[in-house]
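Regression check, manganese (II) ion case 726:
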Amino acid sequence: MLQKLKETTPTRVGFFLLAVIFFWLKTYLAYHLEFSLGVEGIYQHFLLFLNPLASSLLLFSLSFWFSDAKRGYRALFVIYFLNSLLLFANILYYREFSDFITIKAVLSATTTTKSIGASIFQMFHLQDILYWIDFFLLIWLFRKRKTTVQAGAPLKKRMAIGTLALSVVIFLVNLGLAEIDRPQLLTRTFDRNYIVKYLGMNVYTIYDGIQTAQANAVRASADSSDMAPVLDYVDDHYAAPTEDYFGQTEGRNVVFIHLESMQQFLIDLSLTEENGVTSEVTPFLNQLYHSPDSYSFSNFFHQTSQGKTSDAELLIDNSLFGLPQGSAFTQVGADNTFHSTPQILKDKGYTSAVFHGNVGSFWDRDNVYKSFGYDYFFSSETSYTLNEENSLEYGLKDKLFFQESVQYLEQMQQPFYTKFITVSNHFPFPPDELNTVFDIPDTEDETINGFFNTVHYADESLEEFFQYMKDSGLYENTIFVLYGDHYGISNSRNKTLAPLLDKDPETWNDYENTMLQRVPLIIHAPGIGTGGINDTYGGQVDVMPTVLHLLGIDTQSYIQMGQDLLSPDRDNLVVLRNGNVISPIYTALGNNLYDTATGNPIYLDPEMESPIAAKVQELKEAGQMQLNMSDQVVNGDLLRFYSPPNFTPADKSLHNYLDSPAKLLEDFQSSGEEGTSLLQENNGESTVPLYQTDAPEFPGNQPASVEEGTEESSELPTEPVEETEE
Ligand code: GP9
Ligand code: MN
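Current build output:
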């Protein structure tokens, strides 16, 4: 065979083609052997196979720009070597971090890159020969080649231009096919895995470089003087708490529950079957919503944009908005300085953790949480047992997720600040035979029908978790904050939804769509008795000051864009990320104005001055100001220039979330006699057996024969084949 190769590749073009084929196959091999890319179905497999081609053609064809043969060959080998090195470095990095190398990580030479240096030799495998053998084979073939006339002849520029054009065409086809399967792939940047899966390692590296350069340019042009207007804004905007509730839950544990795609219209909604039987969709949430121990909010809006879940998280933990395009998490989250709640509470003796049954790299959480100061991050690779039956596209099903989380929760030193990110109720709300108990709606839209079932399932999972909290004794000393992250049913489906909400699809308009952007917010503090349903107009940006005030923490010196939802001083204004504003009286959507209470349109003559027009203008400007201030802080990384009194910024080098379970155990053991975890309070007796779940996938609920046959696997959740919404 080698002989054959020698004969067929005597020319520069021959070597070029050989290099492309070698590299293409090598990359494809690495995709299968080294990375967990969650490739699903034949379409994605085809894209995975195709994606190394365009960039290999492009890179290796650079050698054609040297008309001199000797220099051309040299260039080809250098490029081949460097590209192999990039691939190999990613392979080694992935073995350690389950993630791809980012330019940021390389440039900042953080402890992560240092630690990789220290352990580099342990990361080599015997199979690594495979990733270099091709290079040496290429060199060997070159040395052995029979020099022919063509080999030494200068190449025409046409060749260089032709291959360049061909690679561009192939890339565009690749991108087009990828966008069909995963719309907005490049604008939203869900996950580095996705870019590699759809477009390849080289494209990922270039894309990452461009993003980093853009973010760095804005950051570099900012300086400390940019903080002055922000400080003025925050000062003017501050809404003070009253004594009635300030510090009402001081020192308690905090449990945030991120309710995936949960919308406010679900609260108190009952649906009736043809036989007349009526059932509540979210009986447990309804109970919490009406409890005198809950501060519940009826006019609370999500303020997310393309960053969806990650925008909601940024808003909740920092009182800052996501960006107008893409996700702030993936664009700047890992680099920026933040004054996040977990870090603020650290000084008050809190430990903190995020629980999420999906891969840690989604939305770059495994890096961003370091900036927020989270002590632990329990994600699917490190902390949960996933198999085909118990997981969905975005991770472990909620009932199993909560159940598996409490083994960690009971070890956490109290007080703790925790966030549980649910996933079962995620678009496209697929039917789940094992858990379809609520299937009343029968509209023409399967997404809507499925939604009610996954919502109901999420509600049941919450009830189980709360029951455990009560049984384990954690309940009384905890404050729960449940919030919906964003819509589940998109505007395009709302007319089909309308009859279920007793609305007329014929008169459905933008106002109705906007009102459906309300999501639940329930702050449940057992035993307070001072709760109730609050009609103030607020949004996710307002949660952080509200919760900090309940915990007795003065927020006046923090840079927060929101206002305490319980404060009588608040402005009662919501700005959505697209600039639309909602106040108790006016709702301004683009150029259209509505009466918020009735939904009736208000027509104003643009030529005429009127008190209403002036008021609406004022509301819009206030909303725009809030967004602008936030964007300046986030884009310019302005919090690095300002430190509130008694605040220590997060030390990102402290965390490597891959060892969160081990680190938790280590911290638990080293706390000794002083330890305050539930497990220690319980004299070492685990509370996990107290957890009751009716999840059919739970090993304890399966018939013995099935249980034996079910193999545990650490396979990662697969992602949906198509996601056309959003
Ligand atoms: C992924 C999950 C979903 O881990 O949080 O994010 P979303 O698609 O809703 O932004
Ligand atoms: Mn979400």
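Comparison notes: DSSP finds 29 helices and 17 strands in the chain. The first strand starts at residue 253 and ends at 259. No diff flagged against the previous build.
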